[in-house]
TrEMBL record:
Alphabetical list of InterPro entries matching this protein: DinB/YfiT-like, MST-like
A Pfam family that the UniProt record links to this protein: MST
Source organism, top-level taxon: Bacteria
Coiled coil: none
Organism for this UniProt entry: Streptomyces bungoensis
The protein's name: Mini-circle protein
Region (Disordered), start-end ranges: 1-38
């Protein structure tokens, strides 16, 4: 007996390895040559790849799909994740400054998720916010290449902040996997 389901059929665009998101020859996270040399370059490479993964998980979706809270009762959506990561990029700069903190991008707690509604202007703004906040945090940290240097009021080590950034993106890429599969069935690594 076949059951009807509201869940979309699972699918992937990969043809070489059907359990992957993209074929290795078209995956922008794959690079030719050896891995980066040194701890700082390695940390930056991992961060770059997780950022790319998040963007890939959101590609090809319209505003409604990006804003869909596809794993109830969670209020998470792919658009909410984009907004959340823009917000935390800004907050990480607050961790390393001795000055007044930057204001929240979206307002009160959970406004990054709660305000993620299906409007194309809001989607465009969220992507712009994320790119701007990533660039600003990258620039702020570029001024501190010593991974052991301690910054801000809490004296956080640059290394700890970089690892925390990687962890945050990695965790949310896992959420994005589930959200995306529930939106349109696309699966992969």
């Amino acid at each position: 007996m076949e059951r009807m389901s509201d869940q979309p059929a699972r699918w992937t665009q990969a043809t070489v390895h059907p359990d992957m998101w993209a074929d290795p020859d078209t995956d922008p996270r794959n690079s030719e040559g050896t891995a980066p040399d040194g701890e700082l370059a390695t940390l930056r490479d991992y961060l770059t790849n997780y950022r790319l993964t998040l963007r890939m998980k959101c590609e090809g979706l319209d505003a409604e799909q990006l804003a869909r809270r596809s794993v109830p009762p969670s209020t998470m959506s792919l658009l909410g994740l984009i907004r959340h990561l823009a917000e935390v990029e800004r907050d990480w700069r607050n961790w390393i400054t001795d000055g007044d903190p930057l204001p929240k991008l979206y307002g009160a707690r959970d406004a990054d998720f709660d305000g993620a509604v299906a409007e194309q202007a809001l989607v465009d703004a969220a992507y712009a916010d994320l790119a701007r906040e990533q660039a600003a945090t990258d620039a702020a940290l570029a001024a501190h290449p010593d991974l052991g240097e301690r910054l801000g009021e809490d004296r956080i080590a640059v290394r700890e902040l970089l690892v925390h950034r990687i962890e945050e993106y990695a965790r949310h890429c896992g959420h994005a996997d589930l959200l995306r599969e529930c939106v349109d069935g696309r699966v992969g690594q």
